[in-house]
Amino acid sequence: ERLVLDGTLAHPAWQRALLHDRFNEHVPVNGAPARQRTEVRVLFDPHALYVGIRAFEADPARLRAPLVRHDGVNRTQDFVSVYIDAIGSRQAAQFFRVNASGSTADGMYTGADDNEDFAPDFDFDAAAHRDAQGYTAVFRIPFASLRFATHAAPAWRIMVMRRTPGEQFVQDTSVRVPREAPSFIQTLQPLQGVVLPAHADALTLRPSLTWRRETDQPAGQAATRQQKLEATLDLKWRPRADWVVDGTLNPDFSQLALDVPQLSGNTRYALQLAEKRPFFFESSDLLRSPTDAMYTRSFTAPRAGLRATWRGDGLAGTAFAIDDRGGGSVLLPDAWGTGLADQPRSRAMAVRVKGDAGGLQWGALAVDRQYAQQRGGNQVLGPDVSWQINDDWRLRAQALASSTSAQPQALDDGSVVLQRGPTTTGQRGLLKLFYQTRTLEFEALWDDTSPGFRHDSGFVNQVGVQHGFARLGRGWQALGPFNDAWINLEVDHTTQRGSGLVVSHDVWPSVWVTGAHNFEAWWGWHGHSAQRTAPDAPLLHERFGRGGLVVSPAAWAPLLDMSFRLGRLADVAANQVRPGGILNLKLATRPLAWLELEPGWWLARLDDEAGRPVYRESATQLLAVAHIDARQTLRAILQRSRYQRLAEPGIAAAQDRGTVGSLTYALRRSAGTVLYVGASRQRLGLGAVDRSNELFVKLQVDVDEVRAGW
């Protein structure tokens, strides 16, 4: 029988499927009976798993489910989500979402750190249909998109989650997840009766063609123009159910959105960026470890990549090779800050293995990165472990060792390049301990990094230090107007190895509460904070408050997200404490059903004792998305940044300004067949301005879809 994916459960096969309707409330009242009825049915055919869901709603007019971009389905909308662990270990689960209007999202949930990662994209289909009883949703998840072992294994596991925003947001689950559970996916229930396909092999080819016209005009120079026509090939080969091979040749990322602005004018350490490039999404859960031991944004401009991933009952692994053009920066950390070197072309090999023995998970990582033109290399190797000691206690640890022959060399023009030099070695050891019950939490961390440790393929922005952190928290549920309320005491202390000098120190109490309208707020008082900018500098004693707020103010403004820091803060350039503040604010709005507007502001300021703003930095962003229909969007992004520093003894005056804008039309037929048409404009500098413009058209097709269409 063929199931038509129209979002309804009208097909007779759905009525013959077993019904599950025993849902529990997860939040706000953990373990309470669900307030509204939800029904789930599961079907299979030789190629895919189907999940049909009926979400009853007493007042269907209250459903909040606007059309959103893929992966834009969030807690401000009515949606259902299916979590599937096809290995059965409850250490990782693929999730698939659809809201009541049919917009979709997917990703990977990892249990070791309770992390929900929307970056991975899997081939699946979903549709929704509203009616007088609420809405129905149907998922079609191909077996080729699920990661499972080929031989006898623990039962597949599944959980369905339903989110209802409303005045008091509610999250229901098809199986109870106690608040003190080690992870959100710890209690996934067995999915019985799965009949796997006789042959799980599959080959997906996705070629793309990008036409680009670029105009560049450095300040004071003539403009140069060039046109390019570039071909790209992405492939995914699945020779067996437990093997996946991914390859990419000359990948193009023109369609990706700009990175979220970050203010870096008053920090000594490098800041981390989120990964957005599809090639790095497969097996992203395997790359996660107690430290940021793999940071794929360190590969700036890949020319080609090949990766193989294998998953079994108690063992999984992934290996990949990257040929990177370079062009970014190599991090050169020490105890007092992060230096940068120009990044040359490189080739890297990485192998990651993870084992699962019930409550004990172990892993190992090996990375070798070699720079072009005999500039040397960087190798990192080490094991890690995650141990669920009992229901309350969990331990995570990782040890890494590095060997580096690509050493920094300063040039006369002030730039820093890598050249082969004497090999240096270093080590890093990290230990995390967690204790969690329904009303009590404790965590402690110890991170010891030697001065010679360097990880060019990971994210390490400080070395040569010993860092300790501890937090003790006490919580209450249903306390007055709050769904949850927690008070915490936190301690953070970092010293330089060898000398014992305090690099930073902080002790602060804090409170965290949640409530109706997606309300979430936190506040901490840092009255005993201090940091040192150099070994011969004094400790800078700060006093400031830090807090944040997340709330859904109205249906037309579904999400406000704000964080701030206000008080006496360290000015790392002037090496003194000054009055000032930092504010980050983002507001998601829906002025029209088809239009998303998301303005954002990032502001930082420090004043001298006379009240003059000696340091000011700001960034603004306006994101606008017009939903032409469920498959077509028009996205506009405008970003402005500004930096100003007044002259002081030992500090030169500095100013900078930048404007970046982009406009992108997207027609998404499926995950593999997409058309993009876009333009971007960039202006950098004051007075003498660097200018660049770009036009591009990119078409990616899925060969199987084209063949089926013929």
> Can you tell me the CATH architecture of one domain?
Sandwich
Q: Provide the structure class.
A: mainly beta
Total of helices:
3
Compute the CA-based radius of gyration: 26 Å
Taking the alpha carbons of the first and last residues, their distance comes to 23 Å
CATH class of one domain: Mainly Beta
What does this structure look like?
This protein has 710 residues and is an all-beta fold. It has a 24-stranded antiparallel barrel. Strands 1, 4, 5, 6, 7, 10, 11 and 12 form an 8-stranded antiparallel beta sheet that branches. Among the domains are: 12-191, Immunoglobulin-like (Sandwich); 269-436 and 449-457, no CATH class.
Report a brief summary of the structure.
The protein is mainly β. It contains 3 helices and 38 strands. Among the domains are: 180 residues, Immunoglobulin-like, CATH 2.60.40; 177 residues, no CATH class.
Task: Supply database-style keywords.
single chain; 710 residues; mainly beta; Immunoglobulin-like; 2% helix; 58% strand
Summarize the SSE layout with pairings.
Elements: H1 12-16, E1 24-27, E2 38-44, E3 48-56, E4 79-85, E5 92-99, E6 104-110, E7 115-117, E8 125-131, E9 134-142, E10 156-164, E11 170-173, E12 189-191, E13 202-217, E14 224-240, E15 243-249, H2 284-287, E16 302-311, E17 315-324, E18 329-334, E19 337-342, E20 346-357, E21 360-371, E22 377-388, E23 393-410, E24 416-436, E25 440-449, E26 465-479, E27 482-496, E28 502-515, E29 519-531, E30 540-551, E31 559-571, E32 576-592, E33 595-607, E34 613-627, E35 632-645, E36 654-668, E37 674-684, E38 690-700, H3 703-709
Antiparallel strand pairs: 1-11, 2-3, 3-9, 4-5, 4-10, 5-6, 6-7, 8-9, 10-11, 10-12, 13-14, 13-38, 14-15, 15-16, 16-17, 17-20, 18-19, 20-21, 21-22, 22-23, 23-24, 24-25, 25-26, 26-27, 27-28, 28-29, 29-30, 30-31, 31-32, 32-33, 33-34, 34-35, 35-36, 36-37, 37-38
